[in-house]
Design goal:
Blueprint lengths: L1 H7 L3 H5 L4 H17 L7 H4 L4 H6 L3 H17 L7 H12 L5 H30 L5 H18 L6 H12 L4 H18 L4 H4 L4 H13 L15 H12 L4 H10 L5 H4 L13 H5 L4 H15 L10 H13 L3 H18 L4 H14 L5 H15 L4 H12 L4 H17 L7 H14 L5 H18 L1 H4 L8 H13 L12 H4 L16 H6 L5 H12 L1 H4 L11 H4 L5 H6 L6 H11 L2 H6 L5 H17 L7 H9 L9 H17 L4 H14 L6 H15 L1 H14 L3 H18 L6 H12 L4 H18 L12 H14 L12 H6 L3 H12 L2 H4 L11 H7 L4 H18 L9 H8 L5 H18 L7 H11 L5 H18 L2 H4 L3 H7 L3 H14 L14 H8 L4 H25 L6 H17 L20 H8 L15 H8 L3 H10 L6 H7 L10 H10 L13 H12 L4 H7 L4 H15 L3 H6 L1 H12 L4 H20 L6 H5 L2 H7 L5 H14 L5 H11 L5 H18 L8 H10 L6 H18 L2 H6 ...
Helix pairs in contact: 3-6, 6-8, 7-8, 8-9, 9-11, 10-11, 11-13, 18-20, 19-20, 19-21, 20-22, 21-22, 21-23, 22-24, 23-24, 23-25, 24-26, 25-26, 25-31, 26-28, 35-38, 37-39, 38-39, 38-40, 39-41, 40-41, 40-42, 41-42, 41-43, 42-43, 42-44, 43-45, 44-45, 45-46, 45-62, 50-51, 51-53, 52-54, 53-55, 54-55, ...
Length: 2033
């Protein structure tokens, strides 16, 4: 007992494995309880027991085993993981349970097996049970059979696969054990219950007694269809529904099921295939040719026996079929004919689909043999052809059948019709589309009129069958002309017909037809994609014949047919009014006169032929009135036109009469029921007049009206033939022109291209150039509809002409055909339904391939030629092949019948001589092109053998074979290849070459297909074996192909197919499947079926696919611009487009339609990441080479295969550069629409483009660069950042191209480099470009150095990597370069750095040789010497670089003069560049940007910082924050994203690309128009205005001069700019932000524009100038009045100084000033007079009175006087207080002038203040003393106290105190707080210090007084640069100023910057902007723009944003700087934690 207690303590799992049986029993019992308790099937508990289950069932102790089985059953039933144990448990049950004597054990075993089946593991269970059948123990065998039987009985034949069971049945019946035989009998009965007679053939060879017993059992079975009684888990919901329905009393579902279940098993499938070819008698082929019929009979009988096998193994039956065919066709002995026919029947039945490839050869022979009368022969032939029909499709043999229909022999006609009737029965509405029905109906309609009754009856039967299959709606259009009797007969036949599939004509078709495409109904009108494609064959035949049958129609009815009415019904076979109109009889002239006189006034008819033209004219007028009033139904059109044609008719000499006459013809055609007969009467006359100068237009109108009445196709044909039958070239050219227009108006449907082409050819050969030109124009229009295939007709024209035609086609490329505007309504009214309306014209007009004259070459393929090809001597074989190539070449386009050629060529594909194999492949390639889509029928017998050649060991042979297969597939589409077992048979062959090539090919083709035949699944087992192939390449290719198989078959099917693999393989394959599932691409968009109908009426929709640029060869000149619009016009959303693709029947290359409609880039999730991993892990080559080697190209190709559309990849890797151009054009087209795809494949696209950089062809390179520009613009819009991988594999190669000799290319590359900075940090670009400076190519070195200069200029010194020092040293090396351009570039770059950085540069470059140093110093001096008043003009004179977004920056790079001596430029860079704004030495600067971005490991411990309360600094005075904060973009809002976005958009306004600029303007306009959003622009106004006038300048200098640019584009841009400005200047708060310098330049730009004579010449130019006028007024009214006045004064000064400036310019400036003067009374209080007077002072200094008087015009001096006079009038004596800003007033002419004025105006003596007395001796006039003083001081203190004007107040107080040192301000201070008093004192002290300090500044910077005046005092404090008049926080800035002055006094000013406004106090109101122009500011603005742009892309580099505010300069940004420093320190600290 002790033992017991030990194991009882063990846990369950250990008990279950215990060696004591009791312990195990207890364990199993406990396990059972646990299993029953676990409620959740997905509980993790189950997994713990996974390993036990096998032990449970295989326990050695019988008692324990029983308990184990119970537990196992519960486990399998409830655990979701149980499926994993299937194999081992079931094999355990079979071997260890089924042999147990206990019945209970066996039952439980069977239950477990069935439970596994229920949990979806049927296949595995069945596999184990079938293995059990081979066990030696009969008990086990019996149990296995019983289990299978039960499973079948319960689950049904869908779940249990019968084929493997039936395979072993015969063996079981032979067993020695009776029990086994009995059980076999039971299962046979069960199987019979499910599949009925399909079981008989496999069991026909068992013992006859057993068979008899079986038969008896079978008879007893109930006849109803069996239903499964047990369901899989996944089906159990269905079961529940079923029960509900049954309980409700309905058995509906059951009925539905039968249909499903019964046909599912096909006896054929259950049979074993028999190989018979080897069993043929050895001498068969000799005997069959023997002279004695007995020998031939023996041979045939031998075959007959063999083919009786119900299923034959696939093989090469070509020779056998050929021999049998020969007997059928040629043998004289009818018995043998019947015998051969039986053999063919046997073959067709035994091979089924595999016989399809031979069907085409045999059908014509059999049909022609129907001439035999003997019933047994006829019967044999009928059986044969019916059997053969089932192996192929009606489409494939329709050509042959239709050809036989015209045979004269009535029996043949009869039998063919009967055969068609029988074939139709097997069809469904979808497999018998209209396109196929049409030719058959046309042929059968002939037969119903045949003289032989049997032929008529057969035709009726066939038509009746068709009617039954597709319904009346589809057939009726073809029966429009059939009389009632015959129609009734057809309907009667239709009722008798029994269809194979019942009326539903649906599912069962799958077996016999490869065609049914479910989901389309008979009414859809348009045939589905697949069908339409296959239909190419029948077209040429029937279409040619249809018209001829119709032609005979009308005469039979006794009506004379009008000469033109023939052929009409062929074109449009319709019922309704049209058909009646067509056959209007021709009336005699008498009848016409009679009819006309009834409706026309009598005088009118009499005067028709009067000799006086005036009378004739009057007569015409009456005629016209009468016609206008007539009713349509009453109008006798023919009579009226006959009257018009009556003498003088069309020979009328007076043009007025003639014009009226032609107009009346048009009226009659429009208003009456105008028939072709009437048209015939007038057309000749119209054609004659079409070339007439005066009447031509009227003639054209009349023709158009006739075309509407009688359809364009007919009219056009008549008109063309008439025009070319006469000699007048003017008529010919005008007719062609009319036709070009008409086609655009009417659309192209129904036009007979062939007829036109012959006329066009005549026209092209004309001597008159006008005719040739018109012909070429017409071809251009046709090209829109027909596409590139049109060119085929003209390939033999002279090269010069051909090039003209090509040029015309090129023009049309990318355009879509216009929607038809005429001729629509009538047609659709008369059409029977829209579908038809849409379809038919299609078939007639669209497909050029069908119009090509195809040559019949079968007669040239003689038996001699065939025997030559198969000769033993290779030379003779070669001769034969050469001959074939010659025949095909000569014929160009051939008919599909090529006699014995296929078999002959097939033999050569395995020729021992490889050269011949290659030659054969070339011939087959030719053949595909020559035969077009008709090559389909040869796929099986010739196409598949080509695939076999892919297994050749020679690389070049394989390549040729692949090219051939591709050429074929292009013509046939993929369906033919994938159908049947042929492809899977090829894949089965264990040839590594074949496998890898074939899989590669499939991987290419599958992703482009929308759907595939079900037979694709047959390839999967072989695909799996390839995944484990010994050959690595095969494995790789198989893995690549896996996702594409899965895309079509779905994961489930693929996973199911792994069931048959060995367990180890299975796991591996499943893992691969999982991986493939992740990468599985989406299917190309399927077509929207519904859209086929609505599109019916409009013709062009159908031609679109052929004209859309993607499909056709897109020439390299296509401009990418009209892209988005074009896509809209075409409706090229992939869905609509694919729908259109479907409707186009048999295009030149059908594949184009199906392939090219999908996306070109397939988004593979994580594809890019995976590729990067591979590259990092060195699994693939790193993209790094000097020239690309093959392995790189191959690698790229492989990587692209999964994510680029196959057809595009072919173009991309084609050997011919034109294909690259094509690919680029397509990529440009898809850029916008497939953003995700482009970004997903960006690495690959860039790599491919680097390969293009190594091409020698310039056009490709240009196109590639064009694409790159668009690409980077897109990427920056998408805010994408290039990855390191993308950058490093692309930038170095782009930089190579910067050294191209062609200027255009270099410019483009530079533009791309500029754009790249938006998606890749400039600092990372720097090292790449630096690398480029080491190149041997001097151009490249120079350009790279320039680019480095630009980067430094735009982004500051931080871009220099690794350190500025190292970088500059490297650059400096190039100063000594041999090449002059390189030296200059190096010097310029260093000068640029000098401009940003000052003398520190010399430290950074280190030591240079004396020569180099002197060059550099010289260059720096030179750049400093230019006069500084020039910048504006210089910028203008420099033609800006138009192509770059940074055009503004580039202009400046070479532009403005930089006054180095005064260091003024420092100020302008101050706001843009951090370095300039900081005064700390470089060595001691914190590189905050670096620190902030470095989130890497901590390199150093941060010391604990003492936390000072920085806030205290801000609290010296509690003055409210200046309001202006809201307006200027200080840092808080700069950190927000809006600001950087706006910066970025503004930067694009100045883009050289018009579209970019317009887009940016539109975005800004949107912001400005919405009040709530306009505020966001605050702070960006100057920046925006600068960008705007940069753009104005760019247009003025560059765009307007550019001939190529459309002037409309420019007008559009102007209107955008002006519109934007007007919006801006309506918002006063924003308008006031514009600063003086910017306003000055803006006014300059606007006035220049108003004076631009080039604009006036343009259509809309006047409008533009009017808008500018309006804008100028707005600017004057709304801007800050001080700023605009100041700007205008400076502008006037400049314009008078400049010699080049036109007097008109100055005049307009003065007019603006006059307007300002008029506004002064309202605005005087808001104007800062001190500043204005300073400007006037400067003006007077530059232009003293004497000088002004010398001016040609007196206006300037008058303007000035008027201004001063008005100011004096408005201000009175106070005006003299406003001279504070003028330095030495005593020298100022202004003061004297004002004093004079004051004296003049008042009698007061004593002017206001003056500085004449040094000590401030001037006094206030006694009279106005006290009161005035008090008022004055009160006003000053008011200002000091106000938030806005505090500084101004302090400045005025200071001035006042200085003037009146004895003045007492005490009383004003007394009442205020201590705080306020100390604030005032401190303020005054600061001003004093500053003013005193100011005296020394000029000395230290060495500005001569002269320059100071001319260049204007000073750079910008925020105050000036943004017009921020008073926005300073007082506190810190005061201290900062003080500190600066102190530093300067101590000589610490190491930045050499003059940052202080020298002439004004910082606290006084306005600092003055640099008057020279705003170029200085501009410079800084641009650097900000650029910077903001970089920031926009890298918003993470917040640090940069510190510098991008348009206005922050040291003087104003103090608080913000402190703020910012705090923020940054916080951030750095937090990132270090």
């Amino acid at each position: 007992m002790g033992d017991d207690s030990e194991w009882m303590k063990l846990p369950v799992d250990q008990k279950c494995e215990h060696k004591l049986w009791k312990a195990r029993l207890s364990g199993y019992e406990e396990a059972l309880k646990i299993f029953q308790k676990i409620k959740d099937e997905k509980s993790p508990e189950w997994s713990k027991f996974l390993g036990l289950i096998k032990k449970l069932v295989t326990d050695s102790n019988a008692v324990v085993q029983l308990k184990g089985l119970e537990a196992a059953l519960v486990y399998v039933e409830n655990a979701h993981v149980a499926g994993k144990t299937t194999g081992e448990v079931v094999s355990g049950v079979v071997s260890k349970v089924f042999n147990q004597p206990k019945a209970k054990a066996k039952e439980l075993g069977i239950e477990i097996c069935l439970m596994y089946i229920e949990i979806e593991k049927g296949e595995a269970v069945q596999e184990e049970l079938l293995k059990g059948l081979d066990n030696k123990n009969p008990k086990i065998v019996v149990a296995c059979i019983e289990t299978l039987r039960k499973a079948l009985s319960e689950f049904g034949s869908k779940i249990i696969l019968l084929k493997p069971i039936i395979k072993v049945l015969p063996k079981l019946f032979e067993s020695r054990e009776k029990a086994v035989r009995d059980e076999a009998k039971l299962i046979a009965v069960e199987i019979y219950r499910w599949i009925r007679d399909a079981l008989r053939p496999p069991l026909q060879n068992i013992n006859s007694v057993q068979l008899k017993e079986l038969e008896e059992e079978w008879v007893k079975l109930p006849t109803g269809a069996p239903k499964p009684s047990r369901f899989l888990r996944s089906q159990q919901e269905l079961e529940a529904k079923l029960e509900q329905q049954q309980s409700a009393g309905g058995d509906a579902e059951g009925g539905g099921d039968d249909g499903d279940e019964v046909p599912q098993i096909d006896a054929y499938e259950l049979l074993e295939a028999v190989e018979i070819l080897s069993k043929l008698p050895k001498d068969f082929y000799d005997k069959i040719e023997a002279k004695k019929w007995q020998e031939r009979k023996e041979a045939l009988e031998a075959v007959e026996v063999l083919v009786k096998n119900p299923k034959l193994e696939a093989g090469d039956y070509a020779d056998l079929v050929k021999a049998l065919k020969k007997v059928v066709g040629k043998d004289t002995n009818v018995m043998l004919v019947a015998l051969a026919a039986k053999c063919l029947t046997g073959l067709a039945v035994g091979l089924r689909k595999k016989f399809g490839q031979y069907a085409g050869h045999v059908v014509p022979t059999i049909l022609e043999k129907f001439k035999e009368k003997k019933p047994q022969v006829v019967q044999a032939l009928q059986e044969a052809i019916d059997a053969i029909f089932l192996t192929t499709t009606l489409q494939n043999i329709s050509e042959d059948v239709l050809a036989v229909m015209d045979n004269k022999n009535p029996t043949i006609k009869q039998q063919t019709s009967l055969f068609i009737a029988r074939s139709f029965r097997h069809c469904t509405a979808s497999t018998l589309p209209k396109s196929l029905l049409k030719p058959f109906c046309a042929a059968l309609l002939k037969h119903i009129n045949d003289s032989a009754p049997e032929v008529r009856d057969a035709a009726f039967e066939a038509l009746g069958t068709a009617l039954k299959v597709v319904g009346e709606k589809a057939v009726n259009p073809f029966l429009a002309d059939v009389d009632k009797l015959k129609l009734d007969k057809i309907k009667e036949c239709s009722e008798k017909v029994e269809l194979v599939h019942g009326k539903k004509a649906g599912l069962a078709a799958d077996k016999k037809e490869s065609k049914p495409v479910p989901g389309r109904t008979a009414t859809s009108g348009a045939a589905g994609d697949k069908d339409t494609k296959d239909i190419s064959a029948p077209k040429p035949g029937p279409l040619k014949k249809a018209p001829t049958t119709k032609a005979g129609g009308p005469p039979k009815k006794g009506k004379p047919a009008a000469p033109g009415s023939t052929g009409s019904a062929g074109t449009k076979n319709k019922k309704g009014p049209e058909t009646k109109e067509i056959v209007e009889p021709e009336l005699s002239i008498e009848v016409c006169e009679e009819k006309a006189s009834a409706v026309l006034p009598a005088t009118c008819i009499q005067l028709l032929d009067s000799s006086n033209w005036k009378e004739r004219l009057a007569c015409m007028e009456e005629f016209q009135k009468a016609v206008e009033l007539m009713d349509r139904t009453e109008m006798p059109c023919q009579a009226l036109v006959r009257m018009l044609a009556k003498k003088p008719g069309w020979k009328e000499t007076n043009f007025q009469v003639m014009q009226m006459k032609l107009h009346i013809v048009a009226l009659i055609a429009q208003k009456g029921n105008f028939s072709k007969t009437s048209a015939q009467i007038v057309l000749d006359g119209l054609v004659d007049k079409i070339g007439d100068v005066k009447c031509g237009n009227n003639a054209k109108e009349a023709m158009t009206a006739i075309a509407e009445a009688c359809m364009l196709p007919w009219t056009a044909e008549q008109v063309m033939s008439m025009a070319f039958s006469q000699k007048n070239p003017k008529n010919q050219s005008e007719t062609l022109n009319w036709l070009s227009n008409a086609i655009k108006e009417f659309g192209f449907s129904g036009l007979n291209v062939k007829a036109f082409i012959s006329n066009v050819k005549t026209a092209l050969a004309a001597t008159n150039p006008a005719v040739r030109t018109s012909a070429i124009t017409l071809l251009g229009v046709m090209y829109l509809y027909v596409g590139p295939s049109l060119r085929m007709f003209f390939e033999d024209e002279k090269p010069a002409l051909l090039s003209q035609i090509d040029a015309e086609f090129e023009k049309m490329q990318g355009q879509s055909p216009p929607a038809p505007t005429r001729g629509i309504s009538k047609h659709s009214i008369s059409g029977t339904d829209e579908g038809e309306d849409g379809d038919e014209p299609d078939e007639v007009g669209t497909d050029v391939v069908d119009l090509l004259p195809r040559t019949e070459i079968s007669d040239k393929i003689t038996s001699e030629l065939v025997s030559k090809i198969s000769d033993k001597n290779w030379k003779i074989r070669k001769e034969g092949l050469d001959e074939v190539a010659g025949i095909i070449n000569e014929a160009k386009f051939i008919q599909p019948n090529i006699g014995e050629l296929p078999t002959a060529l097939k033999g050569r594909l395995n020729d021992s001589n490889k050269i011949l194999v290659q030659q054969t492949l070339n011939i087959l390639q030719q053949l595909a092109v020559a035969m077009g889509p008709n090559i389909k029928q040869h796929v099986k017998n010739l196409g598949i053998p080509i695939i076999t050649v892919l297994g050749d060991s020679k690389n070049n042979v394989r390549a040729a074979a692949l090219a051939t297969v591709n050429a074929w597939a292009e013509q046939t589409g993929m369906k033919e290849w994938l159908e049947g077992e042929d492809l899977s048979e090829e894949l089965k062959k264990e040839n590594p070459f074949l496998r890898q090539e074939l899989l590669g090919w499939l991987a290419e083709k599958l992703p482009t297909l929308r759907s595939t035949p079900t037979d694709l699944i047959l390839c999967v087992p072989h695909l799996y074996s390839c995944l484990e192939d010994r050959n690595g390449d095969v494995r790789k290719k198989a893995q690549d192909a896996l996702p594409f198989f899965m895309m079509h078959l779905g994961y489930e099917k693929m996973a199911k197919a792994t069931g048959k693999l060995k367990p180890t393989s299975k796991d591996q394959v499943l893992a691969m499947l999982e991986k493939a599932k992740a990468n599985m691409p989406a299917k190309p968009a399927a077509s929207a079926k519904a859209s086929s109908k609505p599109m019916g009426g409009s013709a062009p929709a159908k031609f679109q696919p052929s004209s859309a640029p993607v499909e056709d060869s897109v020439s390299s000149t296509v401009e990418p611009k009209p892209d988005p619009k074009k896509a809209k016009a075409l409706g090229v959303s992939s869905k609509v487009k694919s729908a259109q693709g479907k409707k186009v029947p048999s295009k030149t290359s059908l594949k184009e339609d199906e392939d090219k409609s999908g996306p070109i880039f397939i988004v593979v999730p994580n594809g890019k990441e995976q590729r990067m991993k591979d590259e990092k892990g060195l699994k693939v080559l790193k993209w790094n080479f000097t020239t690309p080697r093959d392995e790189y190209i191959e690698q790229l190709k492989t990587q692209m295969s999964s994510c680029v559309a196959k057809w595009l990849q072919d173009e991309m890797f084609h050997s011919d550069f034109q294909h690259h151009n094509k690919a680029l054009a397509v990529m440009v087209d898809h850029l916008e629409s497939e953003k995700e795809g482009v970004i997903g494949c960006l690495d690959l696209i860039l790599k491919w483009l680097t390969l293009r950089f190594f091409d020698t062809n310039t056009s490709v390179l240009m196109k590639a660069l064009e694409y790159l520009k668009l690409l980077f613009t897109l990427l920056s819009e998408e805010e994408y950042h290039l990855t390191e991988n993308e950058a490093s594999s692309f930038i170095p190669y782009l930089i190579l191209k910067v050294g191209e000799p062609k200027d255009v290319i270099r410019k483009d590359v530079r533009a791309i480099l500029n754009r790249m900075c938006l998606v890749y940090p400039a600092s990372k670009m720097f090292p790449f470009i630096m690398e480029g400076t080491k190149s041997k190519n001097s151009k490249q070195r120079a350009e790279c150095l320039e680019e480095l200069g630009c980067l430094v200029e735009s982004y500051g010194m931080n871009v220099c990597q690794p350190t500025p020092g190292k970088a500059l040293k490297e650059i400096a090396i190039h100063i000594g370069d041999r090449d002059n351009a390189v030296r200059n570039a190096a010097l310029n770059t260093i000068v640029t750095v000098y401009n940003v950085h000052g003398d520190q540069v010399f430290k950074l470059i280190g030591t240079l040789s004396e020569k180099d140093m002197s060059m550099l110093e010289e260059r720096i001096k030179r750049s400093a010497k230019r006069p500084s008043a020039a910048p504006v003009k210089q910028v203008e004179e420099k033609p800006p670089r138009t192509q770059s977004i940074n055009s503004n920056a580039n202009m400046l790079r070479k532009g403005p003069a930089e006054d180095m001596s005064s260091k003024l430029n420092q100020a302008r860079s101050m706001s843009g560049h951090p370095e300039a704004a900081q005064i700390v030495r470089r060595e001691f600067q914190l590189d905050l940007d670096e620190i902030e971005n470095d989130n890497g490991t901590v390199r150093c411990e941060m010391p604990e910082l003492v936390q000072h309360k920085l806030d205290d600094i801000f609290e010296p005075v509690l003055i409210p924050e200046p309001k202006i904060r809201a307006v200027s973009p200080h840092f808080d809002d700069m950190h927000s994203n809006t600001a950087s976005t706006i910066n970025f958009i503004i930067s694009q306004v100045a883009s050289g690309d018009i579209n970019t600029s317009i887009q940016a303007l539109t975005q800004i306009d949107e912001v400005l128009r919405q009040e709530d959003k306009a505020e966001a622009m605050s702070g960006h106004i100057d920046q925006f205005l600068i960008a705007t006038f940069m753009q104005l300048r760019l247009i003025y200098n560059t765009h307007m001069a550019d001939e190529k640019l459309e002037k409309d584009e420019i007008i559009k841009l102007y209107s955008c700019i002006i519109g934007n400005m007007i919006s801006l200047f309506q918002i006063e708060s924003l308008a006031r932000e514009a600063s003086t310098g910017v306003l000055k330049d803006l006014m300059h730009g606007l006035i220049t524009l108003m004076l631009d004579s080039r604009i006036e010449d343009l259509e809309e130019g006047q409008q533009v100038i009017r808008s500018v006028n309006l804008l100028v007024v707005k600017v004057l009214e709304k801007s800050d009045q001080t700023n605009i006045l100041s700007a205008l004064l400076v502008l006037l000064q400049d314009s008078l100084l400049a010699t080049a400036s036109s007097p008109k310019f100055s005049e307009l400036v003065m007019k603006c000033l006059w307007r300002m003067v008029r506004l002064l009374p309202d605005t005087i209080n808001s104007i800062n007079l001190d500043r204005i007077l300073l400007d006037i002072h400067i003006f007077m200094k530059v232009f003293p009175k004497e000088k002004l008087k010398q001016c040609k015009s007196e206006f300037p001096i008058r303007t000035l006087k008027t201004l001063l006079h008005t100011l004096c009038k408005l201000k009175g004596p106070k005006i003299l207080d406003h001279l504070t800003m003028i330095d030495n007033k005593n020298e100022s002419e202004l003061e004297a002038h004002l004093c004079r004025m004051m004296k003049h105006s008042m009698d007061q003596t004593g002017s206001k203040s003056d500085k004449e007395t040094e000590k401030g001796a001037s006094r206030i006039d006694e009279k106005s003393s006290k009161a005035k003083v008090n008022d004055f001081l009160a006003e000053i203190f008011k200002k000091i106290g106000s938030k806005e004007n505090t500084k101004e107040g302090l400045a005025e107080l200071y001035e006042y105190k200085k003037k009146y040192s004895d003045a007492d301000i005490e009383p004003f201070l007394k009442n205020s707080s201590q705080f306020f008093q100390s604030y005032v004192e401190r303020g005054l002290r600061v001003i004093e210090m500053e003013r005193e300090g100011k005296g020394r500044i000029p000395a230290s910077t060495g500005i001569s007084p002269q320059t100071e005046v001319s260049c204007m005092p000073a750079p910008t404090s925020t105050v000036s640069s943004i017009g921020n008049t008073n926005g300073e926080e007082v506190g810190p800035s005061v201290y900062l100023e003080r500190l600066k002055i102190l530093r300067q006094r101590c000589g610490l000013d190491n930045t050499k910057q003059d940052e202080r406004p020298p002439l004004t106090s910082l606290l006084s109101k306005p600092a003055v902007p640099p008057v020279a122009s705003s170029t200085d500011m501009l410079h800084s603005k641009l650097s900000q723009l650029r910077e903001s742009r970089e920031q926009h892309q890298h918003s993470d580099l917040d640090s940069n944003q510190t510098h991008s505010s348009g206005s922050v300069t040291t003087s104003s940004s103090s608080t913000a700087n402190i703020d910012d420093l705090k923020k940054r320190l916080e951030r750095i600290k937090s990132s270090r934690k």
